[in-house]
Amino acid sequence: MASIDEIREGRLAKLRELEKRGINPYPTTSKQDKTLSEASKDFDTLAEKGESLHLVGRILGIRGQGKIVFFDFDDGTGKFQALLKRGEPTKEEDFELFNETFDIGDFIEVKGTLFLTKQSEKTILVESLRMLAKSLRPLPEKWHGLQDVEERFRKRYLDLIASPEVKARFMTRSKIISLIRQFYLDKDFVEVDLPNLQPLAGGATAAPFTTRHNALGMDFFLPIAQELYIKMLLAGGIPKVFELGKRFRNEGIDTTHNPEFTMLESNEAYADAAHQRAFIQELMRHVVKGVFGKLSFEYDGNVIDLEADFTVMKFPDMSDDEYKKTLRPTLIQPTFLIDYPVAANPFAKRKDDNPDLIDRFQLVMGGVELVNAFSELNNPIDQKERYIEQDKKGKKGEKDISPSDMEYLEAMEYGMPPNGGIGIGIDRLVMLITGVHNIKEVILFPTLKPRN
Length: 452
Description:
The protein is of the alpha+beta class. It has two domains: about 5-135, CATH 2.40.50.140; about 155-440, BirA Bifunctional Protein, domain 2 (2-Layer Sandwich). It contains 13 helices and 18 strands. It has helices at about 5-20, 35-40, 45-50, 90-100, 150-155, 155-160, 165-185, 225-235, 275-290, 320-325, 380-395, 405-415, 425-435; strands spanning about 55-65, 70-75, 80-85, 105-115, 120-135, 190, 210-215, 220, 240-250, 260-270, 295-300, 300-305, 310-315, 335-340, 350, 355-365, 370-375, 420-425. The strands form four sheets. Strands 6, 9, 10, 13, 14, 15, 16, 17 and 18 form a nine-stranded mixed β-sheet that branches. A five-stranded mixed β-barrel has the order 1-2-3-5-4. Helix 6 packs across helix 7 (about 165-185). It starts with a helix and ends in an 18-residue tail after the last helix.
């Protein structure tokens, strides 16, 4: 069996042969009359017309039989079969060119007419062909793919080619994000872009990443959250705001944590936690129905049903670690956990009937924590006291704090409406809906250690 280096040398020789014949192996332009999914969908009409059309794609398989060669190709929208017949109608020189210089993995443009084979396979009968991009390395074998899991994450482009289910998972991820964004827009929220270089790492309790701006001679932080900027916009008179983007937390990596992750944060003026629970319930139903066409789906051997109102449970008297290890994995059906102690979050408003608790909830489904939300603190005096407590923890060496932000306190003193805030972990939601158990499976290029 030839080594990768030997295969590459052979393909380089074919590339040089193309150039010797005056053929550019990487031309600038290509012609595509239909995508392969369109060609398949409109096949009967196109075949009946008998007109020649141009199709493009990557060769995925070649089957040669003397003067006849079949190959499969894929343009990202679907797969199609092509047939080369030496001399009729495929030009003699094109037939020879294909056999001598084309390989699995090459991108190709073909011109021909559509017909059905005796086995009723939709096929294009090739009249002429053109190289669009010569591949120099072999694709992973179709049935084996990339066996090393970490190699799959490093070479996601090959993972997508070798594993249709992986590609489908990321198509689902895109659909989930579109469904969420459209839901918020339909509810009259305004989508905003907020700074990723921040003078203070605030809005959550987490260790930040630090970077340096040379011209200003100062350090900046990548966002651990965008909550404070969003609430300042509420103070500025925009009542419904959301941002969907990247967050960065300098923390450990495990099956549900990646240092760079995607999060949706939103705030709505005059809303409290109870209002936001109803909002989240409606949103989750919208997403699940949009993906599955029904309000239930399977995850880890369980059927998760969103038909009934979500369970509401008071947060038990236990440590955060105890909660994560013992309680959370048992919460399979959608469950809102409410009534957390004040120390659990420095930005959540105290409950009117019990100031030792905050009006906060988390949504857990399938044992996965998906949403963190609460009635936002809009009292600048209380906020300053909470900041003082955070700063004390920081002086004692605790890293997961939210330091005092005087600009934010100043904005609060101008007046901030009561409001409810929501944070949704997009990656974890995609994990749940696509049925995987490692966050790296839903991030195209997850954070990994260098090879060496």
